[in-house]
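## retry 2 of 3
previous attempt timed out at serialization; input unchanged, resubmitting
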Amino acid sequence: MYRIMFRHIIIFIILTLYPLLSQGESVEHDLLKVIDSHCVKCHGRDGKIKGKTDLFTIKDLDGLTKNPELIQTLIEVIDFNEMPPEEEVPLNSKQKDASLAALKQLQQTSSENLQTIAHAPVRRMNRFQYDNAVVD
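## retry succeeded, writing output
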């Protein structure tokens, strides 16, 4: 009896959480789609790199996560409506909000990966330093 009820509970939980879990992949896919459709035309395709920013080489979010400065730049230009330029098709508000949210999440992830504590090597004291340490 308990086994059957336990199975039903597990199936219910999986079915309830599946849309939430798949939504993260969708947001990442949407961000890459926005970058490909709005940004790559001027920033990397056919060797055309404006603003010293090559977005054509970014094929997945791991490549973007390794470059937190680029993520910060993308957040700033999208947030201040500097990109896409006025001549190009602008991002609608839904695309802009979703892109900014995904980029801020990536920025947090990349900064967490970079925050490592440097290992301080243990140094030996010379005789003079040791004598002073013992006297103190």
